[in-house]
Amino acid sequence: MIAVGSEDRAVRVYELATGRVRAEFRGHEGPVSAVAFAPDGRRLISGGADTTVLVWDLAGRPVGNQPGPAELWADLLDSDAAKGDRAARWFLADAGRGRGAHCGAPPCRSCPRPPPRQ
What is the pTM of this model? Predict the structure, then answer.
């Protein structure tokens, strides 16, 4: 298999023997410029012009190590500086996609909104 990032914001995994697309992943909000398989071969990591790095499970299951918004907000208030730093990095990555630090849907009333763009 080979993974390819593209200008249309997709990551595609091709079967080399047949040239058939085995999987397609969408989630980046800009062209995908980097892809790499994890050493165990079960996950794919992609990076894009939207300044995010996404982890994809090649079996189609959700990747469980990505924290949810409630966990991130709690980590920001935690006395452990490493947790706060991790949460801040996730929030900044999400804000870089224009959505702000919230549930991942377009800004909603229950989630903080990003500051207006200048």
Answer: 0.53
